[in-house]
Design goal:
Elements (H helix, E strand, L loop, with lengths): L1 E7 L2 E6 L10 E9 L2 H9 L11 E9 L3 H7 L13 E3 L10 H4 L7 H4 L3 E2 L12 E4 L8 E2 L6 H5 L1 H12 L8 E5 L3 H12 L3 E6 L2 H9 L4 E4 L2 E2 L5 E2 L11 E6 L4 H10 E9 L14 H4 L4 E4 L8 H9 L9 E6 L3 H9 L7 E5 L6
Parallel strand pairs: 9-10, 9-14, 10-11, 14-15, 15-16, 17-18
Antiparallel strand pairs: 1-2, 3-4, 3-7, 3-18, 4-5, 5-8, 6-7, 12-13
Helix pairs in contact: 6-7, 6-11
Length: 367
């Protein structure tokens, strides 16, 4: 089969590799669509993992082979709540599922669970997702995360369940009440998801971004206020752009959906006492951020983080996406065939004014 293999920093090659072999409790899925995620981009750009790997974890496709033990597994382990799966089912995949038993799982810190840290989907080599290939092997411990795609919905919508899950998980970490005012810094695909989910929950959103085009879209996604932030001009001078709307007098929380230390510091200042600041994009280790600790202690503000997904909310995520209350189709701006995955990574890593979510397809047209 064809696959895009990571061979080193910024080195992606289209190669022919064996179709992965499955075990008796596993699935073989023919990939239709895989989204491009910033976490994979960072691994490719910074070489944080050893090659060779086949990346891509926002994956949807069709079941083409089922292990001989799947039927018995479904009957024996009803507590796993695995959907009744068969060949031909169109499915969205979920590459991380926790053990639900360890210290971290008991505290619902699933992303810290050792089982969760194992990737349960692979196209070959070290398991790394594998969606940038024609077929993937789905291991038994991530079967509870497999979701059937309704007939009216597309593979692309199925592939978007994983990033939507990460956003909804983060929203659930915040102690918000209807009518609260929340800053969402950054209106890329993730920021726009935050904006819409918050709006659906009765939250007033102040959306900020460097680009007016994204702020216009933020309005469509439910932002009550929008504001342009500082941008860097071509001559190197920083220019403050004026607000498009009046800003709310108080902020109850802030979500930082861009890896900007300046945005974090500003959010800590703007959020009122007992508010929360949630970091969603600061995933690069080694950086330091100087803050005033009295804002955390004396003002009782919470500085928290959220990383990755929570398969226990997959049913809620699926209802949100497949009902199109959160219409993820509006977020997908560019589609690349498998052979052009390297180009997709470049665009996603350096987005243009008209680019949002980037997807890679097994074929050049929607299956």
């Amino acid at each position: 089969m064809r696959a895009v293999v990571y061979r080193g920093v910024n080195d992606l090659r289209v190669e022919t590799v064996p179709v992965p072999q499955i075990g008796k409790n596993e699935l073989l899925v023919k990939v239709a669509v895989c989204g491009v995620c910033p976490t994979d981009i960072k691994k490719i750009h910074y070489g944080t993992v050893l090659p060779p790997r086949i990346f891509g974890h926002e994956t949807a496709g069709t079941i083409v082979k089922i292990g001989s033990g799947i039927s018995a597994l479904l009957t024996k382990n009803s507590k796993l709540k695995i959907q009744n799966l068969k060949i031909g089912d169109r499915v969205a995949l979920h590459h991380h599922v926790p053990c639900l038993k360890c210290h971290y799982c008991r505290h619902r810190a699933f992303a810290q669970c050792e089982t969760y840290k194992r990737t349960g989907i692979t196209a070959g080599f070290e398991p790394a997702g594998g969606g940038f290939a024609e077929y993937v092997r789905v291991m038994d411990f991530v079967l509870p995360g497999v979701v059937k795609i309704p007939a009216r919905n597309s593979f692309e919508e199925g592939a978007m369940l994983e990033p939507v899950n990460t956003v909804l998980k983060a929203v659930k970490r915040l102690n918000l009440l209807r009518g609260d005012n929340v800053l969402v810094a950054g209106q890329g695909p993730i920021g726009l998801m935050f904006t819409k989910i918050l709006q659906l929950r009765g939250i007033n959103v102040l959306a900020t971004d460097l680009l007016e085009s994204r702020l216009k879209l933020a309005k469509k996604f439910g932002a009550k206020w929008t504001q342009l932030v500082e941008s860097r001009e071509t001559n190197g001078e920083s220019k403050k752009k004026s607000a498009l709307d009046p800003r709310p007098s108080t902020l109850d929380a802030a979500i930082i959906a861009v890896p900007s230390d300046a945005a974090v510091k500003q959010a800590i200042q703007l959020v009122r006492g007992a508010g929360q600041i949630l970091l969603f994009a600061h995933t690069k280790r080694g950086d330091e951020l100087k803050i005033d600790p009295s804002a955390i202690c004396f003002d009782e503000k919470d500085l928290i983080g959220s990383y990755s997904s929570d398969f226990t909310i997959q049913k809620e995520v699926a209802q949100l996406v497949f009902s199109r209350k959160l219409d993820v189709r509006q977020l997908i701006t560019h589609r690349f065939p498998l052979e052009k995955t390297a180009d997709a990574i470049v665009l996603a890593g350096k987005p243009t004014e008209d680019s949002l979510k980037i997807t890679v397809r097994r074929d050049s047209v929607e299956p």
